[in-house]
Amino acid sequence: MIAIVDYGAGNLNSVKKAFDYLGAEVIVTDRIEALTAADKIVLPGVGHFSSLRALERTGLREALLNGATAGKPFLGICLGMQWLFKGSEECHEVEGAGIFLGRCERFPSSVKSPHVGWNSLAIQEGSRLLRGVAEDSFVYYTHSFYAPEVAGTVAASEYGLRFAGAVEQGTVFGVQFHPEKSGDVGLAILNNFCEV
Amino acid sequence: MTKRIIACLDMDGGRVVKGVRFKNLRDAGDPAECATAHARAGADEIVLLDITATSGHRRTLLDAVRSTAQSLFVPFTVGGGIRQLDDAAAVFDAGADKIAVNSAALRDPVLISRIAGRFGSQAVVVAIDARKVDGGFEVFVAGGRESTGRDAIQWAREAAACGAGEILLTSMDRDGTQSGFDCELVRAVAEAVSIPVIASGGAGSARDFVEVFRAGRADAALAASIFHFGIENIGELKRELREADVPVRWPC
Fold first, then answer.
1. CATH 3.30.70.1350, domain A2-195, yes or no
2. Among A8, A50, A75, A179, which residue carries the largest CB count within 10 Å?
3. What is the pLDDT of residues A66-104, one digit of tens each?
4. Interface predicted TM-score (ipTM) of this complex, two decimals
């Protein structure tokens, strides 16, 4: 059972729908017990980093950290991936999980922001999440803040500068792009997560 | 970063239609089937616009959104008749990734901030219908019939400042004519705002897309009629864009 964390930010339908399509058993939940009972956790998210404050308020933060550090497969999508870093310039008051080092920053003013559209991935060999995904595959992004390339970056994209498209450490995974909106490539990535 | 090719489905009473300058509508099929077919053919995004949206038709629209979203795994924008936050919430709940607002945002720009505040700027597309008037570009509503007296470039700036994530800019002079995008209009708006601009109205050939990406500086281009009736295949269009060195998602 995969638990998709509902913390009141944005629209979780499309993430659930993609897992449904792949035949995975999923629930959308805001209950700590459900996260504890789940085999895998997905933290989606769009919008402002401050919306992650809800994780602290509800006690979900603790449950997510426990799950991720105990080896339960964890996938952060978009804002959910940024949460895996130390924090974001978008909102200093909310602390990230700090599983990946570095802080998220705003794109430079030399490029239009948000970064919206299909961009290609430069993929590192050996990633479990991106197994079978061809170099230079296109995925759909929509975000104004980016996570830096750090140890654990398994795919990078370029938009004004190089940034982390996907990160991976043990069974903790994060993608800045939206696999649920990235056609067959995205579905393949979600399927890899199901099979971890 | 690639340029996006967006397929637009104009919907009336649950059916996809397309007219020339919003008149003489012709039937083009079921929205879910059209959307899936366009995505398979290589469309980077799908936009569904309910062009006859009135309060009595909300259920038809929401049903169409739900069935279309079911097996669509590319970004999906829905517009038409979104007047308040609750309308937007219902459309998101039915499976849309973004909503497009037009006349309601003109009446009350705070609507943009309200929807962006709840669902994020990336989910808010502000649609602007413009026509050339006396050397400038004016905003029109009601399918291009009514002038608002507002300057299109200023309105685009204001919409962006309110929290719009993208501008969907339609030239009402070109819409449905297949005589090429209005590159002058698109470029003026694209240079005035820092958010992506989707050019619409007038697509007729691959050359038109090359022009709007180059001269018009568009981030994305949208077309409807040329894709429905098989005049142009999206895969073929992208092949031609690649040959012209316009970056596109490939293979699509």
1. no
2. A75
3. 999 999 999 999 999 999 999 999 999 999 999 999 999
4. 0.90
The number of domains in chain B is: 1
What are the per-10-residue average pLDDT scores of chain B (252 residues)?
A: 94 79 62 91 94 70 94 95 93 94 96 92 95 96 88 98 97 92 98 96 93 98 77 85 96 77
Q: What's the DSSP call for residue A181?
A: G
- Assess whether A178 carries a catalytic annotation: yes
| CB contact residues (below 8 A), chain A span 95-114, against chain B | 109, 112-114
- Among partner residues B95, B120, B195, which is closest to A14 by beta-carbon distance? B95
Predicted TM-score (pTM) of the model is 0.93
Residue B150 lies in a domain: yes
Domain presence at residue B251: no
- DSSP state string for chain B: -PPEEEEEEEEETTEEEEEETTEEEEEEE-HHHHHHHHHHHT-SEEEEEETT--GGGHHHHHHHHHHHHHT--S-EEEESS--SHHHHHHHHHTT-SEEEE-HHHHH-THHHHHHHHHH-GGGEEEEEEEEEETTEEEEEETTTTEEEEEEHHHHHHHHHHHT-SEEEEEETTTTTT-S---HHHHHHHHHH-SS-EEEES---SHHHHHHHHHTS--SEEEESHHHHTTSS-HHHHHHHHHHTT----S--
